[in-house]
Amino acid sequence: MAMSMMIQSHVPAGLNAGINRKSVIRSAHQEVVIDRRSSSKVSNRANRLTESLSNLLHLHVETPPRREIRYTNWDFVGEEKHSTPVMSPKEVISEKWRDLHGCMDWDGLLDPLHPRLRREIVKYGEFAQATYDAFDFDPFSEYCGSCRFNRNKIFEKLGLDKNGYKVCKYIYAMSHIDMPQWLNRSRLGQTWSKDSNWMGFVAISDDEETRRIGRRDIVVAWRGTVAPSEWYEDFQRNLEPIGHGEAKVEHGFHSLYTSKSEFTRYNKSSASEQVMEEVTKLVKFYKEKGEEASLTITGHSLGGALALLNAYEAAASIPGLPINVISFGAPRVGNIAFRNELHQMGVKTLRVVVKQDLVPRMPGVVFNESLQKFDEITGTLDWVYTHVGAELKLDARSSPYLKRGFNLLGFHSQETYLHLVDGFVSGNSDFRSDARRDVALVNKACDMLIDELRIPHCWYQMENKGLVRNAHGRWVKPKREPEDIPFVGEVNSHALQSQRHLQPMYI
Amino acid sequence: MAMSMMIQSHVPAGLNAGINRKSVIRSAHQEVVIDRRSSSKVSNRANRLTESLSNLLHLHVETPPRREIRYTNWDFVGEEKHSTPVMSPKEVISEKWRDLHGCMDWDGLLDPLHPRLRREIVKYGEFAQATYDAFDFDPFSEYCGSCRFNRNKIFEKLGLDKNGYKVCKYIYAMSHIDMPQWLNRSRLGQTWSKDSNWMGFVAISDDEETRRIGRRDIVVAWRGTVAPSEWYEDFQRNLEPIGHGEAKVEHGFHSLYTSKSEFTRYNKSSASEQVMEEVTKLVKFYKEKGEEASLTITGHSLGGALALLNAYEAAASIPGLPINVISFGAPRVGNIAFRNELHQMGVKTLRVVVKQDLVPRMPGVVFNESLQKFDEITGTLDWVYTHVGAELKLDARSSPYLKRGFNLLGFHSQETYLHLVDGFVSGNSDFRSDARRDVALVNKACDMLIDELRIPHCWYQMENKGLVRNAHGRWVKPKREPEDIPFVGEVNSHALQSQRHLQPMYI
Predict the structure, then answer these.
(1) Of A190, A221, A446, B52, which alpha carbon lies 20 to 30 A from A351's?
(2) Does residue B78 belong to the interface with chain A, where contact is any CB pair within 8 Å?
(3) Do B9 and A9 make contact, defined as CB atoms within 8 angstroms?
(4) Contact: A140, B454; criterion CB under 8 Å
């Protein structure tokens, strides 16, 4: 986290926007002159930083060329755009849900991207985004590393209450491997947990959404990590076996997915056990009701890696259940045997990848599937990381709303992914001009939008970092609502349906 | 701004807090263990940055020694402290207001600091702080560089409505000298002003406060700038004459104070003319009512320099009016003749200075009043910058709430000054244990408080940087309230008492 945060804070708005000090955009309504002089000084500094980081990562960074772009058809400042609905009306897809769920490996649906598939990808991607938006990153909070809201109100709090799903369970993870950069930990001694982090949730489609999409959809959304640079040290070390065959996966991901300890409160069972118990229970429940069910596993970045491990396990233990993974900016996870087993078990994987994003090149920047042509030389290659499934490749340069220039964090950001999916028509066409998703969201936690949009960078922040002025005039951090305090029962028992009025059980 | 912002954002909470990775604080109530491992990596980086900055400034930086401090009498986490009022009851000072206003140069009142003087210093210091808190720093706002609220509600909005004063006028400044680092400018083409910034206000005590303090008090508060590093290039260049004698002052400060242009909206009259017109009018008004009046001019940093220029002019043009300046962390302004003329005209100056703050050493880090002992060598020294008046010297190390270690921005921050004034008893005694001012305020825009207090750094921020979700689900920057749009009439005419329902007159 630390490294990428720093990079971000180095890059003032407008930095990557071009070489010209002033640019003039003409729209039907007015002329906007953006003065970039103020940022020029810092620019060199940030470029140097980017460069050294790229060296640190031993990566060849593809920097989009700095070319002048004319946005003749784009109205960046017109206010009428503010009153366009952010979503198209929902369409019924019950007839073709299997195709959209990937039963034919999305053949013919990706380029051009089928509008209804686009909508579903965005829907699942927003579940992945929710795991970031609800996460408590505050190191001075005793609940740092947990979800800020309980599962009954998370979607409402995030403005996603119309998505047609309900969260049934939260997932917590720990790791036996020392991954200091992964765990978000409170700096206080007395905390809800010293070992575990909230790692995602299981959700289920409600009746209305179930009718629209043609089956009862179980969703698992895995939280990722924001900072690609941290990974480099931790991962790419070694593969460890999974299953009974030749399949191997990265040991760090596997540790997160499977670690547990009797001495913890939230990981007496592992993330794997938590999620599988819930999914199995849901599948059984709806099967007994005679409903058809599907499992859709999603995640961004590290979350995408966990999604794949989750899919592998679910496919092995629940035969016949249609399972897919929709991952965003996910790194490689395992070797070729791992990929082959996933294929054989019928797991359908759609990897959404931004061309300029570095993370999908990890681990295995050097040793990856492109080495297969040297098969004779390298032997069975069971140690080579490989990607899985179908790929939806997006180009950050396709969007007229995004700045040019290299932006490590911006290219990897899930909101950038969702924006690019929303605007994707086909590999050789322009950004979709009637894309409706709110462009402002892109800058929630990065600095990617062109100045003309007037959206501040990294704007997703709490008022006064959560401090409020009490009746005595003092600024204090209010206590968390009791109903939002992580409750140990939510992990280890399903008997309790409501967390309200229960005493928190952390120390 | 840029440089210091970056430094700040480099320094995560807890960074300067010591060498030990873990520290244990025992209070009567509980034991708090602070884990500092997470910040250790970044620590070296920030230290290097600080070092190179210090080299850049060609300054010898006094870094407080890193020693272990035991806070046996301090309760950092006890919640009962949260319900202590932030202010002592107001005491009547009408009998001795002249002494507190400096008529005897605060002789015998500063060490130990007289409790009633302490309270008055904090009161004026909060006016100076208000000029920052209300300022629109947002480069994507078309009102960047203005005050966010109109003068009738600024104190209420900042929680200062019980201070006993009312703002009568806003002051705007521009500069003919190229001071790009000074002017906060919108990056948009269409803005309220391309030349001027809101620079402070004139306020007047209400009847109740007037009774308490024994006279009608006119206050002028000047806004400063937050970033000392920027100054170094701009200032310390040359002195220019002021008045009719030998007095000379730094040309950058003088330009800000006196620049005007017919081609601007807010500086058809200079800051000097705006403030003097208002002060003269108020003095005349209350004189005719038979009331005694005083003028108290305050400012932090650059604002303290402007306060001195303002006092010089007011003393020359309104003889007999008791005038004082209470400045915080202000740089030197002029030469020895300037200081002597101020003394002769009876201007009383109280300079509040934090020992570790670099800004009061500028300009003239090399050539300053300490050179007077070489008088014979250097001649008349009319080109040497010198400080003016009495000094209240504060030591950042006196406060158990503040981190050890060098913190460029933190030592200079006005909230740090106010905290140290509040805790100052005398030069050789401990921090005042019954100091009541809210300690959390210190971290509003810097990272100075020890971790044990659990106050995030730089916490003074707007929710989502001012973006709000509109009825269509889109994140937009709402328009400023019409009554808060800078109104050109407020500068050039006094006929209009209310700005309400007036159309904004910017382009």
Answers:
(1) A446
(2) no
(3) yes
(4) yes
Dihedral sign computed on CA atoms, order B344, B350, B351, B355: positive
Long-range pairs, A425-431, Cβ under 8 A, ≥24: A425/A112, A425/A113, A426/A111, A426/A112, A426/A113, A427/A111, A427/A393, A429/A112, A430/A398, A431/A398, A431/A399, A431/A400, A431/A401
Residue A176 contacts residue A259 (beta carbons within 8 Å): yes
Distance from CA of B282 to the nearest CA of A (A): 32
Across chain B, how many H-helices and E-strands are there? 15, 13
Assigned token pair, A71: 């946005």
Q: Which DSSP letter does residue B429 get?
A: S
Got the DSSP string for A177-191? S--TTT----SSSS-
Identify any residues that bridge with A200 across adjacent strands, giving them in sequence order: A171, A222
Least CB–CB distance from B82: residue in A190, A463, A472: A472
Q: What residues pair up with A144 in beta bridges, in sequence order?
A: none
Give one DSSP letter per residue of A279-319, joined into a string. HHHHHHHHHHTT--EEEEEEEETHHHHHHHHHHHHHHHHST
Task: Report CA-CA distances (Å) from A85 to A77, A385, A416, A460, B370.
Answer: 16, 42, 20, 21, 68
**Do A86 and B139 count as a contact with CB atoms less than 8 A apart?**
no
- Amino acid at position A339, single letter: R
Q: CB distance from A176 to chain B under 8 Å?
A: no
pLDDT along chain A (507 residues), means of 10: 32 32 34 37 42 39 41 47 73 95 96 96 98 92 92 95 96 77 72 89 98 98 69 60 91 90 93 98 97 97 95 97 97 91 96 91 58 45 70 96 91 96 95 93 96 92 94 90 80 41 33
Cα atoms in the 13 Å half-sphere on the side-chain side of B150: 20
pTM of the full predicted structure?
0.79
User: Rounded to whole angstroms, how far apart are CA atoms B249 and A103?
Assistant: 79
CA–CA dist A206, A212 (Å, integer): 10
Strand B323-328 and strand B293-300: pairing? parallel
Distance, in Å, from the CA atom of A238 to the CA atom of A364, rounded to the nearest integer, reads: 10
Q: Which residues of B134-155 are buried (b: 16+ CB within 10 A; e: fewer)?
A: bbbebbbbbbbbbbbbbbeebb
**B185-243: pLDDT as tens digits:** 777 777 888 889 999 999 999 999 999 999 999 999 999 875 444 454 455 567 889 99
Q: How far is A43 from chain B (nearest CA, A)?
A: 11
- Give the number of other Cβ atoms within 10 Å of residue B107's Cβ: 10
Distances (CA, A) of A200 to A74, A133, A235, B6: 37, 11, 21, 33
Whether A80 has its CB under 8 Å from any CB of chain B: the answer is no
Query: Can you tell me the distance from the alpha carbon of A453 to that of B53, in angstroms, rounded to the nearest whole number?
Result: 34
Nearest to B335 by CA among B281, B371, B284, B287: B371
